[in-house]
Structure formats: C-alpha cells, structure tokens
Amino acid sequence: MLWSAFRQCSRRTFPHIHVPRRSFHYYSPRRTTATVPPPAPALPLQPETLAQKIGRPSVRNQSIFAILGTCVVFTYAATWTNIETDEWIEKLTHARAPSTWPHTITSADMRNAANFALVTELREGLKNVGIRTEGLGVQTRNVIMRVWATVAQTYLNVTEGKRICWKICLLNVGVWLAWKSKRLQPFMLRNFVHDPLSGRSSTMLTSMFSSRLVLLLALNVFFLDGFGSSSSFHLLKRQEQLPDGQLEASSRLHFLAFFISAGLFAALTSHIIRVKVLYPRLISRLSVASNQRPATSDTWASVLRSAPPTSRLRSFIRSTFASSLPQNPLIPRAGATGALYALMVLTALGFPNAEIALFYPPDYSVPVQWGVGSLLLLDILGIWRGWRFFDHFAHLGGAAFGAVYYVYGPRFWNWLRAGVADPRPEPGSS
User: CA 157, CA 403: separation in Å to the nearest integer?
Assistant: First the structure.
C-alpha cells in the first residue's frame, strides 16, 4: 500500500524523460601505400679531445685587472701628490712674505721642509721611547734608546726613494715569514702565488711581494735597494727638467705607482704568453700522449702536474736536482723580478755613465748598461733554451715597461697631475 502510494507520487512529481538512442559506428583507418623511411643510422660519437675536456683559460679578466689597477694607482698617487704639494706651499707661504709666493718656492725647499719635519718627528719618538722605558734597568734602557737613535739616524740620512724601498723590502720579509708557517700554507698558496690556470687576477698584485726562497728574497732586496733609489731620483729630476714641470713635494708616490704598474704589466705579459702560446703547445702534446695512456682526470692541475717537458732544447748544464724542479711552463709564479727589471732599465737609461759594483770579485765594477744588457741577453737565452727556474717572460715585460716609461713616463705623470689638480685661485683673489 505504501509502495503504490510512493509510485504514484513519484510519477506526478518526476515526469518520465525519454532519451533517444544513438547507434555507434566503428570506422577502421585507411591503409596507405606509402612506406615510412627507415631511421638513419646513428653517427658514432666523436670522443672529446683533451682541450675540449679541460677548456681554455682566459686573459680577459687579468687584462682588465692590470689596466684598471694601473689607472687607479696612478690616479691615487697623482691626487695625493697634489694635495701634499699644496699643503707644503701653503705652509711655506705663511712662513715667508706674501710677495715671494710662489716664485721663490721650489721643490727642493719643500723636500727640505719635509726632512726637517721628519727630524722633529724622530726626536719626539726618541723622547716617547725614553718615557716608556723608565721602569727598565739602566743598561737595558740605554741599549734600547741607542738602537732607536741609530735606526732613526740611518733612516734620516738616506733619500726618500730608498726609504720607500726599505718599506717594500720589509713587506717582502713579512710575506716570506708567513710562508714559513705551516698553518698559513694553504692561504699563501691561494693568494700569494699567481697560477695562470686558476682564473684569479688579484694574485698578479700580491705575488709581487712574495718570495718563498730565501735566495730569491735576498736578490729582490739587493736589487730593490740598489736600483730603487736611483730610479726614484731619476723620476724626480725628470719632473724638474720638464719645461712645464709642476712643483712636487715628494716623489715617493710616483715611484710606488711606477713600481706597482711595472709589476702588473710584467705579470700580465707572462700570463698572456703562457696561456696563449705555451698552453696550446702543451695541450697538443698531451693530447697525443693521452692516446697511449688512460686519462687520470679532467682538470688542468691534474693533467699538467704529470706533464712531460715541453722544451725541445736541453739545458747546457744538467744538475742532480734538475728532476725535482717543475718541468711544465704553467707552474705558479711569485716574485717582483719583473718590476725590478723595470727599475734596472730605467736606471740604465737615466744614468748611462753609472757603474755597478759586484760582491765577487771584490772592488770590481761594470757599466750599468753592460750589466742590464747581459741580464736581458740571459733571459732571451733562457727562453730559447726552455729554462724554467726564472720567469723570463716577466723579466722582458718589466724591461719593456721601464723603457717605455723612460720615454713617455715623466710627461704622462705631469699631464695626469694637471688633470686631477683642483683649479688654484689667483694670488690676491678672494
């Protein structure tokens, strides 16, 4: 009874909907008579060469770093030289009558005033040492003050160029002491040695002050002390001899800019030659050798570490420790020999009649041009014979920089100082 009532209710509420039926037809795909071409046979994969695996080092970043570094260091030196010169002119002007400015003020007057100020500073330093050592014994205090007075007097008696050379030598000694620390060895190898395959550029600058061997350190100190002061004196005199030469209170920043720029140029020359000339030759020979032996790794360092000698010519002298020396031409380099060659060439051209004395034999001197020319010939011979102990390309690059700077350097320095100088007001103007 309930079911019949539900059916009647559902019929009235939900009407019946008729859905038509559609017939389903299947159509088979048509068969074509065209044939599909067979797939092309796969070409055999060509094995990668050794040069493709390890890539090719670049010289772009190193060139940009050297150029920008030279521009920055010269601009900084010229700016601060102008500032110091203006300060000394103002001091000497107040000490003299206004009518004498600036006609009677010379560069020598400013240097003499700077030396007098240095004397006062050293005397104050000696007085401070005496005050701080009052609690010590009489003998100990006398020894300390005597050593301080001796060092101060020696520092005062030398030229300004030799003072800056001594500071560079102290920096080299400090870096050499850092090499003796085993804890600092990884840091020094990463930051104070220029590796042409590392891709780093800052090591071109830091490697200038790095010497791992005490023999190389002694040579750098000896040549820097001898030729550095003469180069600084030459730059100072050339500045005074120019027709439009400006007053210059100090030449130490000019010399420092020249030294750093020469080192950067020498390092860049060595980097470019080793990467663009020696590297392709070494890779081509290693590619031929890799067909007979399995490759151990795909990195520059691992491949070149076991590289055979690339020089076809043999050295004149064979030593017992020659096998322990590095044989590939891309070994990391450190040292300021490139900048030192620039100093030697500048000295030889600036003072052609000068002579240099040697330690052995005693009391024997040779003309400076003969000595520098002999060293250059020795570097050329080292390149021809394939010697690896010294960086001969950096030596020749530094020598070329020194020769070019001898011709164009003083005028360039004068032009740069005039460009970065502030316009000076006329005397008597408010």
Answer: 30
Q: What are phi and psi of 335, to 5 degrees?
A: 130, 160
Instruction: List CB contacts of 136: < 8 A, sequence separation 6 or more.
Output: 144
362 in a structural domain: yes
Range of the domain at 353: 66-76+160-286+329-420
Residue 42 φ/ψ, nearest 5 degrees: -65, 130
Token output for 377: 């010939």
Report how far apart, in Å, the C-alpha atoms of 110 and of each of 98, 115, 248, 249, 423 are: 17, 9, 8, 5, 21
CATH assignment of the domain containing 205 = 1.20.1540.10
Looking at residue 303, its amino acid is V
Bond preceding residue 102 cis, omega within 30 of 0: yes
- Alpha-carbon gap, residue 313 to 384, rounded angstroms: 8
pTM above 0.85, yes or no: no
Peptide bond into 361 cis (omega under 30): yes
| pLDDT tens, N- to C-terminus, the chain (430 residues) | 545 555 555 455 545 555 555 555 545 555 555 555 666 555 454 545 545 555 567 788 889 999 999 999 999 999 999 998 888 888 887 765 555 555 577 888 888 888 888 888 888 888 888 888 888 888 888 888 888 888 888 888 888 888 899 999 999 999 999 988 888 888 888 888 888 877 788 888 888 888 888 888 888 888 888 888 888 888 888 888 887 778 888 888 999 999 999 999 998 988 888 888 777 777 777 666 555 554 444 444 444 444 444 444 443 333 333 333 344 555 666 667 888 999 999 999 988 888 777 665 556 777 788 888 888 888 888 888 777 777 788 888 899 999 999 999 889 998 998 888 776 554 444 4
> Is 44 part of any domain?
no
Question: CA-to-CA distance for 355 and 349, rounded, in angstroms?
Answer: 12
Alpha helices by DSSP H, listed for 48-159, are 50-54, 60-95, 107-132, 138-157
Say how many domains are in the chain: 1
Of 63, 40, 251, 62, nearest to 164 by C-alpha is 251
Backbone angles phi, psi at 76, to 5 degrees: -65, -45
Does residue 55 lie within any of the structural domains? Answer: no
In a domain, 7, yes or no: no
